[in-house]
Amino acid sequence: MRALVRERFGPPEVLRLEQVAKPDVAEDGVLVRVRAASLNRLEWYSLTGTPYIGRTQMGLRKPKQPGLGVDFAGVVEAVGSDVTDFRVGDEVFGGRTGALAEYVSARLAVASKPANVTFEEAAAVPVAGLTALQALRDKGNLQPGQKVLVDGASGGVGTFVVQIAKAFGADVTGVCSTRNVELVGALGADDVVDYTREDVTRSGRRYDLVVAVAGSRSWSDYRRVLEPEGTLVVVGGPIGNPWTGPIARVVKVRLAAMRSSQTAIFFISKLNRPDLGVMAELLEVGKVKPVVERTYDLREAADAFRYVGTGHVQGKVVVTI
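Request: output the structure for the sequence above.
Response:
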């Protein structure tokens, strides 16, 4: 099969499209013919090998795994002997390392794709969608009627946070740049703040939950807009120092928050089938619609990575296969 690979860390120029062995299907898994895969900031870090502290997991001198990509959507080509809930021909989506290839072997993180979404839209969901869901439901303990501020509302995770928060009955304010104001409003945000014109942390408004998507603000900024018992959930962060990335900032925020009645939480989402099922239900009833700004063919994957590397993507970038 064709797969996108690289033998060393570096810029998109190190990527190559090569013929590699098709993966085997596990007894409790499915082999999926990939129709589309999406890119996250995770893939950019995996490509470039930054921040360097991450190489303890990615590989010190070269990548542990040549393949790239996690999010996928496609059609079941084969099923393992222990699998009873999927059949050949089923349309599915999920997450598995090496998704930027013609086939991927998936086990735990795969679910049925709703018929009313395209493969491109479904491929945009797994990492970003589950990050948003878990940030709101599990870490933020969001309740109907609460006020939510989404700092970074127009990116891959942010567009899902806005929509899921609305689906859960929250009053949502999104923060984004001028060019994204219309998009965030169309996603259902009750209020949209253009950060180039207004500093929301000095607006006098307060929120029960703040979801900071790759935000760079300080704890003192966020605590001004949090209710006395409010919660800040930090999802990622700017790369900052090439050695430690966002980790130093996250630690600083957590330490500062320890002296406050307000709570600061940083987490990394976990792909799993039950939560993919929750997202499938939201997609099926139309409460969530993935935002796909650009699509590229697998042969154009280097260009897709370059665009993701700019850090200014609206929603998601998808590679069709």
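The mean pLDDT is 94.
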